[in-house]
Amino acid sequence: MAALVWDGIGLMRPEDPGWAQQRIVLDALPALVFVERGGMIVYANAEARREIGVEGAWQERPVDDVLWGLHAGTAEPRTHITGTGRSSPFHATLACKNGRMTPVEGTQCLVDVLKRESVIVAQVAGRERTRKPGLMEDVLASLPEAVVIVYGSKVLYTNPAFTRIFGFLADEVSGGELREFMVPETRLYEHSMLQKLVDETGHASVETVRYNSKGELVDVAMQVSPLQVSGGKAGYVFTFRDISERKQVEAKLQHDAMHDVLTGLPNRALFADRLKQGMNRRERRADRGCAVFFLDVDHFKQINDSLGHAAGDALLIAMADRLLRVVRPHDTAARMGGDEFAILVENILSVQDLDALAERILAELDEPFEVLGHRLQVLSSVGIALVRNEHRTPEEVITDADVAMYRAKQEGGHRYAIFDRHMEVQVSSQQERERELREVVTNREFVYWYQPIYWLADGRLKGFESLLRRKMAKGALESFRDLLPVADETGLSISLGRDAIESACSQLVEWDRRMPGNEIILTLNLSRRQFYQEEHLEQLGRTLASTRIDPSRLLFEVSEGTLNENPDKALVIVQRLVDCGVRIAMDNFGAALAPLNHLLRMPLDLVKLDPKITASVTGTGRQQAMVESLLHVCRAAGMQLVAHGIETPAHLRILQEMGCELGQGYFLAPPVDAKQAEYLASHNGRASMVRGR
C-alpha cells in the first residue's frame, strides 16, 4: 500500500487532453483513489467505486458525505500539509451503499494549496494483510532487480528489491523525482543521454552509480523502458540490478593484472603506461622534465643462494616499502622483475633534482634490513635516463636507464649514473659478449646435462630437463644462463635450439636402445626467438621423422612471458607444435602473472611454477593458498603442475601434502651428465627421494 502513495503528481481535469490516459492509470491501481477539489470528491477510481457500490460514472459529492472523519478540504487545508508538498496519513470511515460503514486508512496528498486539490489513496483497514495479491504484484515483489514505475516525472511505484538495494522505503520516494537519486555530477548528462536512447531505440541500458539511503554509492546496471498506457507513453519503467560485487571483482582483477604479486607495486606494463602519459605531458610542458630511475640490488643472487628465496622475497618487499617512502605521491615506483625496480619522476626542473633524488634513494637503501632474523646491509646501483626529444617509446627510456644502471655497476656499484650518449663502455661490453658467444657456438664449447623430474607422490622418475652447460678451462662447466639473452638478441639461439632438438631426439634413441620399454621424457627450453621462428617448427618435423621417436616424449617449455607477449599468435604456434605430437609446458608460471585465460585457452600439458612461487609454499597462508589455487586450476584444466626449485625438505613435504604431481630441484637431484641420467633412469631414481621422506 505504501508503495502506491501519490504525492506531488499533477492532476488533469476532464477537459484536459491527457485526462483519459490518466484515468486509465488511476483505475488500474489496486487501491481506493479519490480526487478532491475545493471540498468535493470529483473523481473516484474503479476500485473505490466498487467498494462504495456506485454504478456508472461518479457524481461529485462533498468529502464529508464520502469519508467521515477525514476533515480535509471542507475548511482550510491542514497546517502540516500546507507548504510541505507531501502526504499526511489518516484513518476514516467510508460511507458505502445501503448504509454500510467501512473503516479505511491511507494517505492524503496535497497537490495544489491554492486550488485546494488533493489525492486521497486508501485501503480498507486490515484488508491488505488478508487480500491475496494480484499476479503482477507477486511478480514485481519477487524480482531480484529493483523496479521503479514513473508516471509523468514522479515515482508511482517501487518494489521491495528497491528498498533492499538502496535502503529507501517506498513512501520515502513515492511522489518524488527519480533524478533525486542520481549522482549530482552526472545526472544532467545521464538524463539527456537516456532520454535520447529511449526516444531512438525504445529502451536504454547503462552501467552507472546511485546513492543509497546512507549516502554511499552503489554500482548498478540500469534499464529504462517507456510505460505504455492505451497506446501512449505515460511514463517510464526503470530496473536496477546491483553489480557492486562484480565491479569489485573486476577492479581486483584489473589491479592484479597491472601490479606485482610480491610487492604490490605497479608492474612493468603499468609503469610503461604511466611513463607514456608522462612523456605526453612533457611535450605540452617543455619546461618540465621527466625521468626514469632504474635500480637493482648488487649481488642479489648471493642473498638468494645463501639465505634462500624466501629471504630474497622478503628483502624485495622491504625494498619496495623503502622506495615508497622516498618518492613523492605523484611519482610511480614499480617492480620491473627480479630484483629490478624503476621510478618515474615528473616535473624535473634541473639535473640537480635528479642528483638529489638519487642520493636520497641510495641513503634510504643503505639502512640495514631486518629479513627473517637476518640483518642485511644491501647495496644498490641506480641508472637514470632523462626523457629527451629523441625518445619515441617508453621502452627506449627504460633501456637507457638500464644501460646507465649497468654503467654504475661497472664503476663498482652502490652509486648512480646518468645516461648519456657517450657510454661506449656498455656498447663495447655487449659486443664482447656477442663475440664470446659466437666462439662458444662455432667451436661447440657446450654440452647437455639433465636435471631429473620426479613424481612427488612416490618418487618415481618422470624424465629430465635438458640444460646447456658451457665448457670452461680444465674441464669445468658453467651455466649458459648469462649468455642466453645475448643468444636471443643476436639470433644465435636459433642454431642452439636446432642443436638441442637433434641432441634430445638422439639421446632418447640411445636410451631406448639401452633401456627398451622405458617411458622417460625430455623437456627442452624454448627461448622467445626460438618459439616464434618458423624454421624451428620445420626442423622439428624433420628430426622427428628421421629419428622415429615417440613425439609425446618431447616436452617444450615456453616461458609465461613469451606466451603472454602475443597470446593469439602464441596460441597458433602452440597448436602447431601440438599437431606435431609434442607436448607443451608453460615455464616460470607466476613470474609475470599471465592472465589465467591465456593459460586455459592453450593446449598445454604441464605448468612449471617459477622457483620463487615454489619457495613461497613455506611462507604465509596467503602464499600457500595461491599455490593451492594454481593446483586446482591445473587439475580442472587437465594439466599437471611441476614445482620447480624444490630446495628444502619443507618445500617437498608441503608440496606433497598439497598433492602437487611433479617436482624438480637441487634438494631432489642436481643436473647430471648423460651417463648418470641413464643410471638414474635404469634404477628409477627413487634413491634421490629418500631425503625428502
Automatic annotation (TrEMBL):
Residues 152-201 form the PAS domain. One of its GO terms (biological process) is regulation of DNA-templated transcription. Residues 288-421 form the GGDEF domain. SUPFAM superfamilies: EAL domain-like, Nucleotide cyclase, PYP-like sensor domain (PAS domain). It holds the Pfam family EAL. It comes from the Bacteria. Residues 430-685 form the EAL domain. InterPro entries: Biofilm_reg_signaling, EAL_dom, EAL_sf, GGDEF_dom, Nucleotide_cyclase, PAS, PAS-assoc_C, PAS-like_dom_sf. One of its GO terms (molecular function) is catalytic activity. Residues 204-255 form the PAC domain. This is EAL domain-containing protein. It comes from Occallatibacter riparius. The lineage of its organism: Bacteria, Pseudomonadati, Acidobacteriota, Terriglobia, Terriglobales.
